[in-house]
Amino acid sequence: xxxxxxxxxxxxxxxxxxxxxxxxxxxxxxxxxxxxxxxxxxxxxxxxxxxxxxxxxxxxxxxxxxxxxxxxxxxxxxxxxxxxxxxxxxxxxxxxxxxxxxxxxxxxxxxxxxxxxxxxxxxxxxxxxxxxxxxxxxxxxxxxxxxxxxxxxxxx
Length: 156
Description:
The protein has 156 residues and is an alpha+beta fold. The chain is 22% helix and 30% strand.
């Protein structure tokens, strides 16, 4: 099974929780990527966020601790023959600037755009193409509902 790790990065500078989404291959997703040999899920998640956005560990706080929430395993790949599971951590960032860098292995940019999306946009309520992918959506709903209900209590 392939394990992917990343973060639901939230920012509240505009008076509401907004979530960092990256555009990849025509889809919107959270910053995440494959866990490399020897990495913990948390190490992989922080590496991926920094590689894909320029937002480093020192820019992040973890309002729910360093506990991940995971998707159910799902089929992936062109022929739907592989199994994947995604593990996400919730992070708060005061930094809103995103800097794309090239993948160190391929030498290509993995993402083409970013946005800070509110709850409705994240879940594709305004436009299905603007929302998060279906495999991560159930976890996203759980996380986002928790943040939206508690963000002021959490001091975000």
